[in-house]
Write a structure and sequence with these properties.
globular; two-stranded antiparallel ribbon; disordered C terminus; about 65% helix; 19 helices; mainly alpha
């Protein structure tokens, strides 16, 4: 009887391994962001607790230093290449101008504190933000802390206006300044503008389950933050916020732009027209923007005089300027006799005082006067590369349906705001370090690897 051949049993086929989803990570993996969050939130401390406006180093500066140290420690531990060649060039370029201005200053020792400050704000903090952010979720966490800070300061500012406990304005103590006090009149307006733009970016571009759920809340916050921004009576911040908001709307798409403009128009009618929230004073302040060349007030005249002084310093030292922190020492030799001795500040718990005018209130002219063409070219080249890269990456993400469009909109809006606002302001005060955080957020979006910057983050 013939034996029956039994075919061998087929080998078991291993089940395909599931493709792992991008991990959002818990706080154990997000702990390096804690110093950045502290850097953002600590400026909310009342100025009386931080030594007032004259404090050289505040809690936020200490937190930013810790963030830099954490970044260095992680690089040494993980043994990773810190930056790509392009990112190193763009983020490190301003350091060249700072170093040249410090070395060529008439008193290099006096310029040393300025060198440290400029490196902190425009190089070290942005690099730390760039390296500590791992994905879009981390971006949203740090940007969300800006919204939290804006809400805290905005509520405080509205309370000051309603109760008459704000800074002095037109003979009344109604100007909203938050916890920064009248010595840092732009502080509250700056952080409220940051929060408003981030919230608007989330409302316009959030995708994915978790970000999309936040869109209604973000839209409400963006509209609500218009109130304290208006009550700050800061014309330069109004202009910068309007420009940055329009840029974000244009990049978000026509449909989103039309809907948002309709909502903003209705909100303005209700808040100002219906409830009369500072309507007359806001209207007068807004009208004064077009009158600065015809009938300028003393503050505008002083600003023109300081702008002229900065230009005169540059003409005297065109390549390297008068040196970091050199504007106050050279101001009187270059300013016209129309420049007043200082500006008056009072209210918000502070007695009347005269605040010296130690800067031209124009970042570009300050850099030109103190660092010359070398410094201005370096810093403008860096910022232009970041802004152009952020816009390019945003357009690319929208065309491919990227999930991190809200991050791109926030990055472009914040960078645009900074570039425009620096036409009317410069660094100084407890919110200075936030400029470095904003620059780092924009740089991360513009210069990081595409798979990192546009990774879909779902919950």
């Amino acid at each position: 009887m013939a034996a029956t051949l039994t075919p061998p049993a087929p080998a078991p086929v291993a089940a395909p391994r599931p493709v792992p989803r991008p991990s959002t990570g818990g706080w154990r993996s997000r702990w390096p962001l804690l110093p950045l969050i502290a850097t953002v939130l600590l400026p909310a401390l009342p100025h009386s607790l931080t030594g007032g406006g004259g404090a050289a180093v505040g809690p936020a500066d200490v937190a930013s230093g810790i963030a830099v140290l954490v970044c260095v420690a992680r690089l040494l531990y993980l043994r990773r290449q810190p930056l790509s060649a392009s990112a190193a060039l763009v983020l490190g370029l301003p350091a060249i101008g700072f170093a040249v201005a410090a070395v060529t200053a008439a008193d290099p020792a006096a310029a040393l504190p300025g060198l440290v400050r400029y490196l902190q704000v425009f190089v070290l903090v942005p690099v730390a933000v760039f390296l500590l952010l791992r994905d879009a979720a981390g971006f949203r966490i740090v940007a969300g802390s800006l919204v939290v800070l804006a809400v805290v300061q905005g509520v405080t500012g509205v309370h000051q206006y309603v109760t008459g406990t704000g800074a002095s304005y037109m003979g009344e103590e109604i100007r909203a300044v938050g916890t920064f006090g009248p010595s840092d009149i732009m502080g509250m307006a700056t952080v409220v503008a940051y929060g408003l733009l981030v919230a608007a970016a989330c409302a316009l571009g959030a995708r994915g389950r978790t970000p999309a759920r936040l869109r209604p809340v973000a839209a409400v916050l963006a509209v609500a933050l218009i109130v304290p921004l208006a009550l700050s009576f800061s014309r330069g911040v109004w202009i910068a916020t309007a420009v940055a908001g329009l840029v974000a709307l244009a990049l978000a798409g026509r449909r989103q732009a039309l809907t948002s403009l309709a909502v903003l128009g209705a909100a303005a009618v209700v808040l100002v027209g219906g409830f009369g929230v500072g309507s007359q004073m806001i209207a007068d302040r807004a009208a004064s923007v077009t009158q600065v060349t015809r009938a300028p007030d003393q503050s505008v005249s002083d600003r023109y005089a300081m702008w002229s002084a900065a230009g005169s310093m540059w003409r005297e030292h065109p390549a390297t300027g008068v040196g970091l922190k050199g504007f106050p020492a050279h101001r009187d030799a270059h300013a016209s006799i129309g420049l007043s001795s200082g500006s008056d500040t009072a209210g918000a718990g502070q007695a009347f005082r005269r605040q010296a005018l130690l800067s031209p209130h124009n970042m570009y002219l300050l850099v030109l006067g103190e660092q010359g063409l070398i410094g201005l070219t370096a810093i403008l080249g860096s910022w232009a590369a970041i802004l152009a890269g952020a816009v390019r990456r945003l357009v690319s993400a929208r065309s491919r349906g990227g999930a991190a469009v809200d991050c791109g909109l926030a990055a472009v809006a914040l960078m645009t705001w900074s570039c425009v606002n620096f036409l009317y302001a410069d660094i100084g005060g407890p919110t200075t370090v936030l400029s470095g955080v904003v620059l780092g957020l924009a740089a991360w979006w513009a210069l990081s690897e595409p798979d990192r910057a546009e990774r879909a983050v779902t919950a």
